[in-house]
Design goal:
globular, mainly alpha
């Protein structure tokens, strides 16, 4: 019962986040556009409190997974691989921004879909459903904020020809892709459920659908913050806690204890962001932080995705 209470606490947080999103949505409907300072404050809170911290436990997850698999784990080697992946992808943003953008969208679609359907097996049917669902999530956010998103992407990629072509194609065909992906998703999910049925919680689905609807109504910054920090990160924390707590990892005695243990690397990541922002802008911080923010989130996603992928695969086999 106590364990069930702990697990339900994550659902409570995602519902609270949804109600905060509703409050922002009502504010926008009644008083006009949400002030940019409020948007930035909300974005900073969500990314700082949950968005970045949910990846700050990767070294503990990797170590615990290695121990359970009776494999040798060397923290120095893990950190070296982690940093190399970050540096390689960061470099690709400098020289190939358009291609790097496409890579980021693909890995984000997989990561979001894998987390939202973490209880499913890793059959090709469920994996296809994961990727398609992730694509639907991204399309909802991108298409419902196309003008905002276009301006940010062009700044991030420094008007890359690849990005311009991609955005032009998305503007013309995006709604059709959304419909196609949704139909393919329903087909793949039906096939997957028929072969490997999973337990589907109605309040989980309702919570997710509500979050996605709110995201489609809010401006881009709070929209992304709500899904990424208010839903994805919390559900990732839930998966991580379940794994580490079952393995009797002392850093996951309670959810709050686990979150506190994520703070040191969260602060380190914050310093890393400031350092990266200086490099990206060339001569110090400027008044336009969005390119640096999104690139920073993309480069720390690459090694984090690998850790979470192994964790979720392990969970789906048990």
């Amino acid at each position: 019962m106590k364990r069930l209470h702990r697990m339900n606490s994550f659902s409570k947080i995602t519902w609270i986040n949804a109600f905060v999103g509703i409050a922002l949505m009502v504010w926008q409907w009644t008083a006009g556009m949400i002030p940019i300072k409020v948007q930035l404050f909300y974005f900073a809170i969500m990314i700082g409190a949950t968005g970045i911290p949910h990846g700050a436990l990767d070294h503990i997850i990797a170590k615990t997974n290695a121990v359970l698999n009776r494999q040798n784990f060397v923290i120095q080697q893990f950190l070296m691989r982690y940093v190399i992946a970050i540096l390689v992808y960061a470099t690709s943003w400098i020289f190939f921004p358009g291609i790097s953008l496409i890579i980021f969208l693909i890995i984000s679609a997989w990561h979001f879909g894998e987390t939202d359907l973490s209880s499913a097996t890793h059959s090709w049917q469920w994996n296809t459903s994961r990727l398609l669902w992730g694509c639907v999530v991204l399309l909802v956010i991108l298409l419902s904020h196309f003008q905002e998103m276009q301006a940010v992407v062009l700044r991030i990629t420094k008007n890359s020809d690849t990005a311009i072509a991609f955005l032009g194609h998305l503007e013309q065909m995006g709604i059709y892709y959304a419909g196609i992906f949704l139909m393919l998703l329903m087909t793949a999910a039906f096939m997957a459920y028929k072969k490997n049925a999973i337990r589907i919680s109605w309040h989980y689905v309702l919570n997710l659908v509500l979050v996605m609807f709110i995201c489609s109504q809010l401006p881009l910054l709070p929209s992304f913050a709500l899904y990424f920090g208010g839903w994805h990160a919390i559900r990732s924390f839930e998966i991580i806690f379940k794994f580490l707590h079952a393995a009797k990892e002392e850093t996951a005695i309670e959810p709050l204890t686990m979150w506190k243990n994520a703070l040191p690397l969260t602060f380190l990541a914050a310093f890393g962001f400031i350092f990266m922002a200086f490099i990206w802008n060339g001569v110090g911080m400027k008044m336009d932080p969005l390119p640096a923010i999104f690139i920073f989130l993309s480069i720390i996603t690459v090694p984090h995705l690998d850790v979470m992928d192994k964790l979720i695969q392990r969970g789906s086999k048990q």
